[in-house]
Amino acid sequence: MTIASDLLQRHIQTLVEDNAQWQTLIADDLLWELPYASAIGHPARLSGREEVVRHVTWFLGAVENFRFFDLKVYALADPEAAVAEVKAEALIKSTGRIYLQDYVLFLRAADGKIAFLREYFDPARAAKALDTPILGLES
Q1: Which of 18, 28, 46, 124 is the most buried (most CB within 10 A)?
Q2: 136 part of a folded domain
């Protein structure tokens, strides 16, 4: 196991279950890219601890019974980089709909902390669960 693959596994284990512990894993200048999030009106990029924690806090407040499962972490040749695939499910509080998602995450570590995340997910699944339109689609 590399530092990055360990951090990626711990990210998935603690983000929801022990958010205070998760916050010890992230660098103050963390950059979290969510390339498809803008399709549902969410930020495509979160910069710095304050912005990341604010968004994660909002997310955790919007869901109930969130759980990750079927985690596969792949260490790369560079010990400070790793990739993961993981599934998740939750109840969206505002809609009462079930959210099912597949994620692919890329992580880069620096000085033993999570310095960079790139998270890919299906915005159509998120839009359906959140009962929100996908921006830019013709109606």
Answers
A1: 46
A2: no
Is 136 a residue whose pLDDT tops 80?
no
Does the pTM surpass 0.85? The reply is: yes
Distance CA 90, CA 93 (A): 9
Tell me the two tokens of residue 138: 């013709």
How many whole angstroms separate alpha carbon 87 and alpha carbon 82?
17
Q: Which domain holds residue 111?
A: 3-130
CB 11 within 8 A of CB 24: no
Q: Does 105 fall in a domain?
A: yes
Tally of domains within the chain: 1
Task: Report the alpha-carbon distance of residue 68 to residue 16 in Å, rounded.
Answer: 9
Tens digits of per-residue pLDDT, 70-121?
Answer: 999 999 999 999 999 999 999 999 999 999 999 999 999 999 999 999 999 9
The arrangement of strands across the sheet holding 63-75 comes to 45-47, 26-33, 113-120, 98-110, 81-92, 63-75
